[in-house]
Amino acid sequence: MAATDALIELATLFASDPTLRDEIALALNDPAAYLQQFAERLSERGIETERPDLAWFALLDGLKARELAAELDWKSSAKDVLYGLKTLVNVPRDVWDGYAEECDRRVDPDRDSFVECYLQIADLRTSPHGLSMVTLDSGGDSYVAALLETAKVARATELADKAGGLGALSHRQGTERIGSRGAQ
Length: 184
What we know:
The chain is of the alpha+beta class.
């Protein structure tokens, strides 16, 4: 399977919206046109010229534009992560009730990687709904977090690997013991 086919199939695992596939195909087949059409979106990333991973960013930004992913800074607080996760349209809203408080109970800011733990807690909360928290590599110090049907995670990981470049997808699988404080 070619990297381009892998990237298009990966997009379909996240969204059935054909316009997302169209955006990725444009980035693959006519990067100059993609740069022109999505200049504002790309300027936030400092992307102004063609580059080999442009289609990967088309996927990330396309998911964000459709509220299927949230970009989180590595040093975000639990409340900031919660704000980003609440924008995701593919999860029941009650999943987030008490989320920030649970993060505060479980995570020791002096010992734990905040956002990693916060995303693992989010995975615990979404897994009963058949959803898994995944992150897609943005090449920087932020996490692009998205929810994906749990049954699709293995295939998505495989496709991201085949996509090459920044094509890295990680499942932020939660366990009962998250952070140095555990379940408390």
